[in-house]
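Our platform keeps sequence and structure together, in a single record for each protein. Such a record has a labelled line for the sequence and another for the backbone structure tokens. Nothing more is needed to write down the fold, since each code stands for a local backbone conformation. For reference, a complete record is included directly beneath this paragraph:
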Amino acid sequence: MTLESTAARTGKPEIVTFGCRLNAYESEAMAHLAATGEAGDIVVVNTCAVTAEAERQARQAIRRLKRERPAARIVVTGCAAQIDPARFAAMPEVAHVIGNAEKMRAGTWQALGDPGADRVRVADIMGVREMAPHLVPGFAEHTRVFLDVQQGCDHRCTFCVIPYGRGPSRSAPLGTVVEHIGQYVRSGAREIVLTGVDLTSWGADLPGRPRFASLVRRILTAVPELPRLRLSSLDPAEVDDALLRLFAEEARLMPHLHLSIQAGDDLTLKRMKRRHSREQVVTLCRQARAVRPDIALGADLIAGFPTEDDAMFARTLALIDDAGLDFAHVFPFSARAGTPAARMPAVDGSIIRERAAELRAAARNAQARFLARQVGRPLQVLVEKSGRHGHAENFAAVALDRAAAPGTIVDAAAVGTDGERLHACLRLAAA
């Protein structure tokens, strides 16, 4: 879970973002959509529902923002607001609650300028069947652009409420995706990150049911001037041979694979209603390294899922080494009302916290080992706004010894690491 706030920009609202990269993309879009309206001084809180803690932090932020800016109208949106709008509408600090569909429409923000505007505008998203990605003007200022190409999810993992906040799976048309990427690249983007709720399900609702790999291949073919294409989190059950071949054949597809694994024990995975086994994950990671030896492998892991005993947890902990993971995002299990997992025998909270801490320590050690292996190797680093920091092709964070022009891809040599990032000496500009 991440929390970000847009910087103050004339004519645009402040937006506080919780959660995933998809939320970050939509927050940038909202900043421009809201700027077209007459809404006045507003602060938007774009919530996340993946854990109870994310919702608690959003409510805490709402109360703090109102204390700091008593004249501002607080508008709440995002998955938590979509799933339970009444809870946020009951907060005295909140002026408006809008749904995930409504927040991406300029008309919604224009209507907020009307003193008689509805306080709650949240439609049932479960019947939505079409998707149109938004071309966000503000992303022309970015060197790395997140592009939403898929929304919603048709699966029902027993711990997850996100389908109720995002609706059924739906895909952006291939031609629209390629057109938007072309425009971003012409505006200066050096790296495009494809995002979605269930990214590898892209295409299942389109004519001919194209596979996700065909989208990736088409982007790389149709936009040859795009230096870097990166993928966000993928379902390991859907990573097929065609996608692995692209990692082997396409240098512009970044060697960075983040998998939504969640557990390393087969019985736990079955109770989660996941569609992969432990052995399938280990095999996939082995295959990925075989076709792209420089690939970095990451995962999402949940600690303390209901019924998890010591042996089950030990298998999840061991997966970090068995699969050769280089980094992991660890989530303590958080029961979500209405989900099957919330009715399963719970693990004691103190044990959940201990297991999460143990997983995080193992993940830090794996990351430190991964970074240590990079020392002495050449890097190509996409330089970010500060001019002194960026990310390598495998998404390792890099601190440069001297400044380079933001938005350039530079050659550097990794000379050390502090366990969290690489330290590198700048060589020559590569692009």
In short: The chain has three domains: 3-123, 137-373, 378-429. Residues 349-374 form the longest helix (26 residues).
